[in-house]
Amino acid sequence: MNKKIIIRTLLSGIILFLWQFVSWAASGLHSGSQTHSPKQDTVLAFFESIQLEEGGYIMPMPKPDATQEEYEKFGKENSNKPWAQVYYHKTKSVNMGMSMLRGVIVDMILVFIMMFLLDKMPVIGLIQGKMYAIAIGFITFIAEPYTHYIWYHTPNIWSYLLDAIIPYAIIGLLYAKFWQNK
């Protein structure tokens, strides 16, 4: 494998990984999806007491075998009422080292694919490099966080948009300035 490909993949993966750290941990951009509740112990104790199965829930939700008529009735009865989306895990086990390693590897795979696509284009300038890379970041934003937001009004949608623009713009500029295979 070409030494240049390895270097730019490593550097870009680290840039993306560091941005994610800043975005999620250091800056508080995503604090709205990690909000503390003073009632957390009560809620978690309740989930444990009813032996809730591990998984993701939207509450309220009709039974899986509900008829079309039951779904429509449910929708009318629950319109403009409170609802929640919950991800429940019976045990908290975070292996920080392994999670970080997996995160940086995924970031490197992503930027390797991005570099592969950029390499297929003719020589590009700084603005083009930035815009092409932002377009790839924007695709990742639309594909998951924004689509999820459309349906579930998840918090921090604008933070996800920043995540799709800032690190990708930096990587695109670096690619156009230093890493093109031209």
Task: Describe the fold and architecture.
- This protein is mainly α.
- The chain is built from six helices and two strands.
- The mean pLDDT is 92.
Largest sheet: 2 strands, antiparallel
Q: Please tally the helical runs, counting DSSP H or I stretches of 4 or more residues.
A: 6
Strand order of the largest sheet: 1-2
Distance between the termini: 17 Å
| SS-based class | mainly alpha
Count of β-strands: 2
Describe the global form.
Answer: elongated
Q: Into which percentage range does the β-strand content fall?
A: 5-15%
**Residue runs with pLDDT of under 50 for 5 or more positions:** none
Describe this structure in a few short sentences.
The mean pLDDT is 92. The two termini are 17 Å apart.
Features of the shown structure:
182 residues; mainly alpha; 5% strand; elongated
Task: Lay out the secondary structure.
Layout: H1 3-26, H2 40-49, E1 55-59, H3 68-78, E2 84-88, H4 96-119, H5 126-152, H6 157-179
Antiparallel strand pairs: 1-2
Helix pairs in contact: 1-4, 1-6, 5-6
